[in-house]
Amino acid sequence: MANTAHGHAAEPAGDTRRDFLLHSTVAVGAVGAAMMVWPLIHSMNPAADTLSLSTTEFNLSGLAEGQRITIVWRGKPVFVAHRTAKEIEEARAVRVAELRDPQTDDVRVKKGKEQFLVIEGTCTHLGCIPMGVKTTEPHGDFGGWFCPCHGSHYDTSGRIRKGPAPLNLHVPPYQFISDSTVRIG
Amino acid sequence: MNTEKSTIRKIYEWHEARLPIVSWLDHSLGTKYPVPRNLNYWWNFGSLAMFMLAVMIFSGIFLAMNYTPHVTMAFDSVERIMRDVNYGWLIRYMHANGASFFFIVVYIHILRGMYYGSYKAPREVLWWIGLLIYLAMMATGFLGYVLPWGQMSFWGATVITNLFSAIPLVGDSIVTLLWGGFSVDNPTLNRFFSLHYLLPFVIVGLVFLHIWALHVPGANNPLGIDAAPADKIPFFPYYVAKDVFGLAVFVVIYFAVVFWAPNLLGDPVNYVKANPLVTPAHIVPEWYYLPFYTILKAIPNKLLGVIAMFGSILIMFALPWLDTSRVRSASFRPVFRVFFWIFVANALMLGWCGAQLPEGLPVILGRIGAFWYFFHLVILLPMLGWLETPKPLPTSISQSVLKAAE
Ligand code: HEM
Ligand code: FES
Question: Does residue B345 sit in the same domain as residue B245?
């Protein structure tokens, strides 16, 4: 860069002292500006009070066989289903390799408590709440849940079987704290 | 001579010598801005769009004086605007319907450009800025629709923000970042209000660039040929008068809806307060998003659906190169003209499908329509430029008039 305008025509191109000062000023300035961007972006992430998750406890003894219920965890619905023997059997009979999001029924329930299915009631497509908790609601082609927003069908294990959703309904972290009580979260 | 100048004239000249704002305006939209003499009424929609932007900003600022961006109060604050605030109903109905009319005007404005080839050289950058304005409008309209915190606000926000979860690897983190939590909630509403207030002013900035880019080559015209200086007339008074006449007609229609059918274009479900535990049986976006929503629904795969939806708008940036014909105006392109109207009809059909439940006929029509949309832009347009024989172009605007008179 022969900088004739500033009277430096004689200096070698590219590595004058002036260029060095210019480039290092720009570089330091750019790094400084970039470092300021992160606090701004991160301020949009969940704040500390939002992060301090709550837990929800639920007693299963009132839940009759075949019944499903919605409980609230972190402001979002969680489905708890007391599955019938037929529903469990259907969930197990599926050829796992043919599933879009391959998972056996076993890994989606707790050992010895296979009749209870606990899943997040948020469609993995775009976040609507699937129907199927009430017996009067549509259950989809596989007897589980049906999301009316864009037509996703979930089976009796909450796995995606048909429609645009890519993943099975999530199983939230939960444990049995007594024989009939679960704690979610 | 100097002694004859009035005091007002002297003050004006004193000021103009320091900030030549009047002559700047005169060059931008006044007597020093030459415009082709043959513009038809489709050229009114640019000034109408500017008018609607002003209406949205004014009504919005007054709404914001009474609106509360908090999940427990937002819905009630909007109801209070409707019932208790003096003329609150008028301001809100002007704003809510204003968004619809803004989109009607801009859609016609865009289609005008597509019919008369206004996107072609040397107006590609002008076209791009227009598309950026359109994208910013879509974002603003979406953010605004969330503010009244009705059921459709909440679930629309949930579905649209979840579109970003389709991005591989970082998708979920992006959605959490957008929400500021684990679902659409108070932090989301707060930031949406902040951005809804900001973006219209970004649009104002883009409009400046748009007008600037317009002034470099000057306006296109219905014949699509370059206008000779002799074929141009000053913007003021000729087109100012014509634009004002068009505005008068437009305002009558706009306020007829504001006064007598203010909920015609809205969804009644949004008068139900947001409930994070109940999804409405049928989620539909506002009408102006429907064609794109259909394209999303047409593809039974999350990522591909989202790509197709965003792609259907982004592809418009490539339009100046997808259209290989040198002839701008459809008036001289008999085959293109037919396909243009098919494209418009197809877009309307896509819009209709978007409002239907995702089963049966609307799904099939939606898929055909989505296919045609891309087929038209990616295959037909380039082919037409090579295969079609355009009609002979007039050598000048005045020649076309004289010939027609023979
Ligand atoms: C590009 C311009 C704008 C567009 C397209 C737009 C669009 C919208 C839409 C569609 C709504 C929902 C209306 C409803 O159904 O109730 C809305 C609400 C709202 N907008 Fe805007 N807006 C614009 C500019 C502004 C500006 C500049 C402000 C200033 C702060 C503003 C403030 C508000 C407020 C406070 C609400 C909530 C009240 C309500 O829902 O009626 N808007 N906007
Ligand atoms: S959100 Fe459930 S199918 Fe789209």
Answer: no
